[in-house]
# Entry
Amino acid sequence: MRPSLQRYRNILDFALSSLLRRKGRNLALISVYTLVVFVIASLVFFVQALKREAHELLAQAPDMVVQRMVAGRHDPVPLAQVEAIRSIRGVDEVQARLWGYYYDPVFGGNLTVLATEDAALAPDAIWIGQGVARSMRVREGDLIPLRGYDGQSSLFSIQKVLPESSELVSSDLVLMAPKDVRALFHFPEGLATDLAVQAGNPRELPTIAAKIVELYPDSRPILKAEILRTYEAVFDWRGGLMVVVLGSAVLSFIIFAWDKATGLSAEERKEIGVLKSLGWESSDVLLLKFWEGTVISVTAFLTGVLLAYAHVFFFSASLFEHALKGWSVLFPRFRLIPALDGYQLTVLFFLTVLPYTAATLVPSWRAATVDPDAAMRS
Amino acid sequence: MIELSQVVKTYQAGLATPFTAVDRVTLSIPAARLTVLKGPSGSGKTTLLTLIGCMARPTSGRIHLHGLAADALPHLAPADALEITSLPERFLTAIRRRTFGFIFQQFNLVRGISVLENVLLPTYPTGEDPRAVEARAVERLESLGLARHLRASVDRLSGGEAQRVAIARALINDPAVIIADEPTAHLDSRLSEDFMGLMSQFKDAGKTLLITSHDPIVYDSELADLVVEMRDGRVVSES
# Structure
């Protein structure tokens, strides 16, 4: 091996042995450091995975939803508007949607009731989401009563429980025939909750939306891109909220790490003096301290990231789920698809490893540049 | 030969309480001989050693190495004198590494690592072949009777053993000059005699030895070729 490479190796070996000599202190440092990386990486992974999940699920959503507003509130849309909107140039398909919220007083949660024209749905039957099945403790084949607008209960048989893969959006869903929805909510004939619009060319959507507003000034078109943006904002906001809540923990770590990293003990100072008196250059001492800092920060970073990966993708972020998934009574249970974003990891690396490594080098540089005669006088 | 000319070392120069530890010392230390610096505590012996050993720079004055730093700086120091006080830090480090071997009063072994690792410490930045260096370290330790302690932690050694490890470490880069600061301060008479026996071997091997001591076993020894007495930072006698 070339002498310059051998020098690096020798100093790296000595750095590892130095770390082992101060096991207690370094293990404490790595543990706290790992915890902070774990928390931040969990948040980053979770928020990213949720956003990706939302993107994939919304890929199937209509390009635009048209609502009608009365006195600033969402109001049913007359079905007559379906044909008028369909005739606008660029519109491929318009579908009237019928849906509403059903409050279940037994478990104190809201269900989303949605009408479906699916031919597979049997008469007087419903399909329910996993969250509904869990909360009501029911399964396929069971009968459940739903209280109508007039206080009368109707019995529905559960034909299907929707698959877990769609649970993020279907957890609280109850699918039933349009006539059942109208009967349950006393929803007038000739009206729908909103209209789902598909366009041939998504770039024409703003123009179509403008034409709809021109045609029906009391309408409110909502583009899919706007829904996505809202989802992103909500997940970012929740992630940010967690960061704020955990800010005090992160700050404590920074103070702890700064103290540990910047404060060279008297023994370490003496050791640096001895090494210099034995012929180590200041650059050799800095290399030694650089390796020590790098080993600690990279170990903590990798351990924290791996733990966060397992926490988010194998244990569904069980530590943060209540803060991040939502505030409904019906928490969706789902397993996120493992995905790593190189950019996020790089940012995380630079935010955690570099500051620590830099913090260790400054005091070492100060100690390494003093005359080695301190060793003679200790 | 090491030649000092009007060497002064003042700490806190320019501040309210300057302290001159070495005051206008002019001295010639012969090569391949044993020179003892003696004097009471605070007489400036250790400071003078740090100046000669390139660990600190004098406030004023000149120090010349005659034919001693050829290994350290072959391109700068052929056979003639090398003036070391004005050299950049990098060159001083090279001289410390190659020309001088230090034996400290407190031994200054690095705790928590083995005897062998301590002896190898001065070789790490050189990037030499680790097998050759380790063979050399083992040989030095065996010659000092420490073969069975190679892998032991230095924390478990007796005072005499720790000093012999420090000696092995000082010798690992085969220096021309061995500098020892109060080497017998923590040893009993028998171990002090043993130490002088080792010094005798090194002297026979052609090493230049420079020792500070106020122990009669050292400065009254027949081995001492030159005894320099210091007081208040100045040389008061040479014999």
